[in-house]
Amino acid sequence: MISITLDPVGTVVGGRTEAFDDDWNTEQAVIRIDGSRFGPDAVAGLDAFSHLEVLFQFHQVDPSTIHVAARRPRGNPEWPEVGIFAQRGKNRPNRLGVSRCRLIAVDGLDLHVRGLDAIDGSPVLDVKPYMAEFGPQGETVQPEWATELMRAYY
């Protein structure tokens, strides 16, 4: 197996201090890019975009709680058991999260965002501008339980 080492490009500052599932669109935070590795030119032009895609680590998830088998999302007995790769829960094998959020402002190396579902202190592994052309091509489908789960998420 190949080993991968990643160095965070920044850290989430502010917003929630603990993860709970809903109302993320009300949260504002800062993605503070690591000034010891990057200068302002690393974010040049980013302010022309409305949204970001952010890859981060669920750093507070205890590795002993990682799920690798099927389970009911949020433990809801009304929803089917589905594998970890058929859901977006934080107790994932590599504890990686991907989020799309609104970019409010760029202030030096501080990216002010709303709707980032990462908590204060989360290591940020990458930031990319969201471009519509990278969105899904064609119709998207998902099961009803996923639609129900997401109703109050943002």
Automatic annotation (TrEMBL):
PROSITE patterns in alphabetical order: TSAA_2
Keyword Magnesium in record: no
Record key words, sorted: Methyltransferase, S-adenosyl-L-methionine, Transferase
Gene Ontology BP term (one): methylation
The TsaA-like domain, residue ranges: 6-139
Similarity annotation: Belongs to the tRNA methyltransferase O family.
Protein name: tRNA-Thr(GGU) m(6)t(6)A37 methyltransferase TsaA
